[in-house]
């Protein structure tokens, strides 16, 4: 049995939805279909989820948003018409959405979640109606009925353990289940959405709950590439990579598959297959527990910009028990999450995403560090990029660091930071933003030598 | 005006003390002489400080230690006889020491400090007597009289700011001052010793307080070497290095000069000159604020063993605000100080000195991390060495990392950890203990290419 998830671009138009149907019927194992909200039809298009967020915002502020409501319903109507569905399908969506938007606004966060989730929910109903119109034994299943109950923890939404048992019962249902992605319910039946692109997570939870043999994730690329195709021309496709490798690559900007979505599949040991709705014959990329290391130590190179570092130095810092902990506490009290903490003997740097800070907060933090920790020097450096060189077994490969740092030196890229030694599957280099592209190209050339680098 | 400090081996015998006199009189700027306790005369000898610690321990336990007392007084007597000093000098030391050992034991820590400090104190009196016997205008000055008042802070002893003003008045005294190293007094006149080898610290404090032009530190080597001479044959001598470089090298095992001793000199910008009592004509090594970088980016390579790392992994750790801080708090609550915290995305390692831990403490910490932080995996890796490659300006030198890691790869040394990016003057590699020597030799060969490596 397979769980199959389709992303927004795979469901953006009637033409796309027809491809989805062909994919589902071509393999009788594809029994649970998880759908996103309609995505972009072309690069200038607006995703339904974005329209919903805007619409909910206007309702909260002005109590109405007629044009946006029409635009949203219009997206569904276009698809419904392309698929020759009866008008009643669109009308039901219009009525339900309007009622929802007019509903209880006493808790704006819950209101917003419910409105956002309607994008997937209505799409699942529409797709189920289409499947039925084509003679399939298919039906929409709501997450509350299925027992997808979650708790809202800081940082991410967590599925309650008992949900998995409840979801197992979906196996017993005959026919094809069409399930909306992106959200679950709290124990008192409030809608809780996952983080953005969270339909991947729903698919993974269902795969875990139903003990599926495979979780297929259909998107609009043939494979996960070893490096961003906007940086390197025609890069190597990755046939197979491990959960850990995927997680490290997503962290640094690989957005093909949602990182939280890996957990449920990983815990149940269910392989994930990334495939292309527009080219279903392509093998795609498999995410697995273990893989052969025959292609050398490196499987992918990713880069992400927008980091800054807070440098703190104090003579004999090293001897002060609790210095690092107190420093991290100052950040925590300002609600800042940090990424890495490279350190010297008497100095320490904290690398964090700079979008979290503005000038005021920076000033406040710098002065707290001076005052409370009696630091000798505190300074903030902006515009850093982190580059991840990822591959299983890298840790035990003498010389990978040498190859990587030599490639960077040849490209005249100065290494601002290296963080290596905790993760067994990655090596991290900090460079200035302006050097990021050059650095990635140089590393790609070193580890995937036959490639052509974009100039 | 110069402050001159002589280490234990420079004062271990009459022959050595005569060299000290020659050095002092050869330069009229050498006005303040700081002395250690008599050190080793040969490699199997026992330092007076070690005899004193043993003796105090026996007195605390049994109320007497006749043989040890005799051994200690015997060391002074040997020197006094070599120098043809009157017997009264030794007898005074015998009486004072006995009285001290029989004294107040209600606070064993203070008792031990007072006994240890007597090694330097009696030696200063002896040296002053010898200088006078040779017709010099010299006198012993006690730290309490001079106003060297300290507070006993966790981690290290701190000089009270007003001490520096008091010490400035030493400039006004005529003749040569002989000052005992290693200790100061609390505000209520209790003896507080500095950490081991703390006479270096006294010299630095006096240099700062008296605004000396130079702080000369006489020991038994011609210079600070760029690498441990037991690991590499006949290594390059360092002519000049910065305070920061010296600090980083001492951290990883360079014991020529005490790291705490750098602070007062550094704060006052007073250069430190490490020289050899047995070869005073040699230039020695100068520790300064700034130096030329003409010798390439690396000035020294040091290595230190006995580290372990606690590895913690948890899926999506990265999203949990406060995870790192709580982890460090667990260590702090067990009184552990850590050195470095390399991190991946969902894993973090804490590198610390393993002598701080035994099996019980390790088990306790591992289970606290599992229970309180819900980690997926916790493991402790033992027997790591840290290798520091040190040099000013290294940070802005494209390619230093590449050279270093290539040298290690060629020597078949696997890099367990790299920590680079906070300190501007060093790069740190973690390797297994067994690879430490091989790693240091390979790095030395790379950065100081003409050298002969010991096989």
What about the largest sheet of chain A? 8 strands, mixed
| Neighbour order of strands in the largest sheet of chain A | 3-6-2-1-9-14-15-13
Number of distinct beta strands of chain A = 22
Uncertain segments of chain A of ≥5 residues (pLDDT<50)? Answer: none
CATH evolutionary superfamily of the largest domain in chain A: Acetylglutamate kinase-like
Distance between the termini of chain A: 46 Å
Q: What percentage of amino acids of chain A are in beta strands?
A: 15-25%
Average pLDDT level of chain A: 92
Q: Into which percent range does the helicity of residues of chain A fall?
A: 25-40%
Chains forming the largest contact: A-B, 65 and 65 residues
In short:
The structure is a homodimer of 455-residue chains. With 455 residues, chain A is an alpha/beta fold. Chain A has 2 domains: 2-220, Acetylglutamate kinase-like (Carbamate kinase), CATH 3.40.1160; 300-453, VC0802-like (2-Layer Sandwich), CATH 3.30.2130.
Can you describe what's shown?
The structure is a homodimer of 455-residue chains. The first copy, chain A, has two domains: 2-220, 3-Layer(aba) Sandwich (Carbamate kinase), CATH 3.40.1160.10; 300-453, VC0802-like. In chain A, a hairpin with a 5-residue loop joins strand 7 and strand 8 (191-193). The relative contact order of chain A is 0.10. Chain A is globular, with a radius of gyration of 24 Å. Chain A is of the alpha/beta class and 455 residues long. In chain A, helix 4 runs antiparallel to helix 5 and helix 11 (323-333) runs antiparallel to helix 12. The first copy, chain A, has helices spanning 14-25, 48-62, 66-82, 87-102, 108-133, 143-146, 161-168, 199-209, 243-251, 262-268, 323-333, 359-373, 400-410, 436-447; strands at residues 2-6, 30-35, 138-140, 150-152, 157-159, 176-180, 183-185, 191-193, 214-219, 224-225, 232-233, 237-238, 240-242, 272-276, 285-288, 300-313, 338-340, 347-353, 377-390, 417-420, 426-432, 452-453. At the A-B interface, helix 9, helix 11, strand 17, strand 18 and helix 13 of A face helix 9, helix 11, strand 17, strand 18 and helix 13 of B.
């Amino acid at each position: 049995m397979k769980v199959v998830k389709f992303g927004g671009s795979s469901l953006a138009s009637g033409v796309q939805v027809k491809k989805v149907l062909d994919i589902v019927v071509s393999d009788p194992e594809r029994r649970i279909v998880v759908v996103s909200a309609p995505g972009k039809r072309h690069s200038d298009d607006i995703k339904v989820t974005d329209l919903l967020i805007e619409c909910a915002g206007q309702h909260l502020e002005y109590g109405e948003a007629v044009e946006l409501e029409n635009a949203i319903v219009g997206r569904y109507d276009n698809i419904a018409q392309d698929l020759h569905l009866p008008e009643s399908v669109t009308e039901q969506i219009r009525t339900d959405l309007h009622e929802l938007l007019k509903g209880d606004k006493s808790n704006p966060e819950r209101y917003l979640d419910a409105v956002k989730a309607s994008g997937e929910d209505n799409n699942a109903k529409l797709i189920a109606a289409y499947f039925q119109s084509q003679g399939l034994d298919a039906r929409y299943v709501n997450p509350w009925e299925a027992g997808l109950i979650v708790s809202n923890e800081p940082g991410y939404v967590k599925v309650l353990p008992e949900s998995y048992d409840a979801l197992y019962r979906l196996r017993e249902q005959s026919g094809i289940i069409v399930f909306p992605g992106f959200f679950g319910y709290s124990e008192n039946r409030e809608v809780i959405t996952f983080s953005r692109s969270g339909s991947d997570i729903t698919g993974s939870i269902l795969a875990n709950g139903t003990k599926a043999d495979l979780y297929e994730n259909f998107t609009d690329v043939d494979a996960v590439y070893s490096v961003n195709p906007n940086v390197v021309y025609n890069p190597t496709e990755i046939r197979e990579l491990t959960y850990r490798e995927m997680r490290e690559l997503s962290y640094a900007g690989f957005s093909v598959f949602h990182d939280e979505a890996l957990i449920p599949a990983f815990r149940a040991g269910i392989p994930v297959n990334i495939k292309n709705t527009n080219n279903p014959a392509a093998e795609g990329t498999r995410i697995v527990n273990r893989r052969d290391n025959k292609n050398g130590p490196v499987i992918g190179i990713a880069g992400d910009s927008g980091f800054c570092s807070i440098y703190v130095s104090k003579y004999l810092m090293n001897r002060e028990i609790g210095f690092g902990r107190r420093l991290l506490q100052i950040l925590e009290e300002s609600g800042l999450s940090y990424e890495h903490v490279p350190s010297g003997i008497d100095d320490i740097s904290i690398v964090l995403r700079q979008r979290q800070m503005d000038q005021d907060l920076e000033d406040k933090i710098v002065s707290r560090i001076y005052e409370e920790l009696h630091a000798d020097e505190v300074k903030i450096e902006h515009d850093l990029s982190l580059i991840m060189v990822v591959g299983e077994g890298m840790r035990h490969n003498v010389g990978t660091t040498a190859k990587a740092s030599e490639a960077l030196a040849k490209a005249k890229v100065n290494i601002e930071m290296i963080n290596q030694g905790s993760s067994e599957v990655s090596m991290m280099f900090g460079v200035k933003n302006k050097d990021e592209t050059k650095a990635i190209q140089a590393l790609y050339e070193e580890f995937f030598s036959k490639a052509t680098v974009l100039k």
